[in-house]
Design a protein that fits this description.
The protein is mainly α. The chain starts with a helix and ends with a helix. The chain is built from 6 helices and no strands. Helix 2 runs parallel beside helix 3.
């Protein structure tokens, strides 16, 4: 049985809290990964609500936005593109040391902040 849109949102909230937990623990690229997962789940819930179908098993945030047929304001849109791009390297890292250098505390902090803003925007679309 498919999840209800509200369940997708509950999980999105849980995942953004997990991102914060990872950030506070110094696991910065995992914080970024959880940010992506949170936004992905929120979009999948919105997809299910708007399209009335079970969302596809993909990770592409831009694809989901396009299928839902919504366009975020420019700053959130640019951020979602950025988050979509970094998800691949955090999901399938080539080298741990490089990932740790690329996703510093400042980088992860900015992504976490922007993810919370994007999540709130998505919730308003429900």
């Amino acid at each position: 049985m498919a999840k209800e849109p509200e369940e997708w949102l509950r999980q999105a909230d849980y995942d953004i809290e997990t991102a914060e937990f990872m950030f506070n623990g110094g696991r910065y690229f995992y914080a970024v990964f959880m940010c992506h997962l949170s936004i992905e789940k929120a979009l999948k819930g919105l997809y299910q609500k708007r399209v009335q179908e079970t969302p596809p098993k993909i990770h592409n945030l831009i694809y989901l936005l396009n299928k839902i047929g919504i366009k975020p304001e420019e700053s959130i849109g640019k951020f979602i593109v950025k988050l979509n791009e970094v998800s691949v390297v955090t999901r399938y890292p080539e080298e741990l040391g490089k990932l740790q250098k690329d996703f510093t505390q400042m980088v992860a902090k900015d992504i976490l902040k922007s993810s919370k803003e994007a999540l709130e925007w998505i919730k308003k679309q429900y």
